[in-house]
Amino acid sequence: MSSSWKPGPLGNREPFSAFICDDGALDALRPVVIEMGWQPEKCNKGGLRNAIQSLSISASPAILMVDLSESGDPLNDINALAEVCEPGTVVIAVGQVNDVRLYRDLLASGIHDYLLKPLSASQLRDSLTQAQAVFSSPRGGDGEQEHTHISTAVVGTRGGVGASTLATSLAWLFSVEHERSTALLDLDVHFGTGALSLDLEPGRGLTDAIENPSRIDGLFIERAMIRANDNLAIMSAEAPINSPLMTDGTAFLQLEEEFSQAFDMTVIDLPRNMLINFPHLLTDVNVVTLMTELTLASARDTIRILSWLKQNAPGAHPMIVCNKMQGGAAEISKADFEASIERKINFQIAMDQKAAANAAKLGQTFIEANKSSKTVGPMRDIGNTIIGVADDDGASLEESGKKGGGLGKFDLKSFLGGMSKKDKGAEAVEAAE
């Protein structure tokens, strides 16, 4: 999609125009348009192709709503619409296909929003208000500093391997020791422990987002997230266990998009079943931190998840973290584990029941409650590695090294791909047994 889709000044253009296929949707739209102070006559009968025909001979409005219901190839037709739209037009699409992939592709093409039929007054009002706000405070204006965002998903190969413990510790680490604004998204909607680890009530933020994805914007994020400290906010839930998760994943994608604008870092505590149900969750994730342990079941599922990531998230760097290291008491040896997964373990975290109990008693993350423990050293190194993803010159890695034992400048791709003990960074990879 061309850069002409970026919002621009309103100028002397008409504020709004719509091309809608069916009478029911038009009947829902017209009262809201009147409420917004616009002319209801600008709500035209006809879909996207009618819009293309009309706009090829007339000026584009500031906000354009088009119906994709009669389009056989929505993405191709949207590209055709871009050819006749003037720069700065904000486009809202309407359709009846409830598909996350289509939604994601439409947003990537430059569409401002996608509304699913049947349309409701509140849904239309929210979307049009957000579109109108683009002109009063557009993003990415001249003089703004480029915003760098890093996202990591922490996935456990099995239940109980410590993925949530690591996710909350990384979020705390980024927010406190690295002083970066951080969002923690706990996607275990029924049994998540993110808020519990931070001694917080989870609130209804994530539940509300799932129930009303069209409401998700910067203001919603500000109100719905629970603040843990000045730089850390969490979104989680304790949904009733008799209420199944009813979502197509749209809410999760929109949350990730808003987090990327509002925070420096996003940490996603991602239950492994979510990979199956919502593979698009990893589209914009920089690092997938795969938490495992030295068991046969974990070895099997590490192989399966690594294969899945290669197919579904080729842009994300997988990082293998082995937890609960117990010397010779493991079910299988480290060497056998690495041979089976055909790559090196990047980091090892020792078994420390006393430290885990201490964190639970204090209502703090593992790393906050045990700052001086040798057990948390690898966690700091994991955090440094993740932050290094977006640093082309390695500057922040060098800075993090001053704060907590960094890794220095290195080739991230080869590092995460596996290293032998003879490699230069071996000492950083081999954490305390």
Automatic annotation (TrEMBL):
Keywords: ATP-binding, Nucleotide-binding
Source organism superkingdom: Bacteria
Transmembrane segments: none
InterPro entries listed in its UniProt record: CheY-like_superfamily, P-loop_NTPase, ParA/MinD_ATPase
PANTHER family on file: SEPTUM SITE-DETERMINING PROTEIN MIND HOMOLOG, CHLOROPLASTIC, SEPTUM SITE-DETERMINING PROTEIN MIND HOMOLOG, CHLOROPLASTIC-RELATED
Identification of the protein by name: Pilus assembly protein CpaE
Organism per entry: Aurantiacibacter sediminis
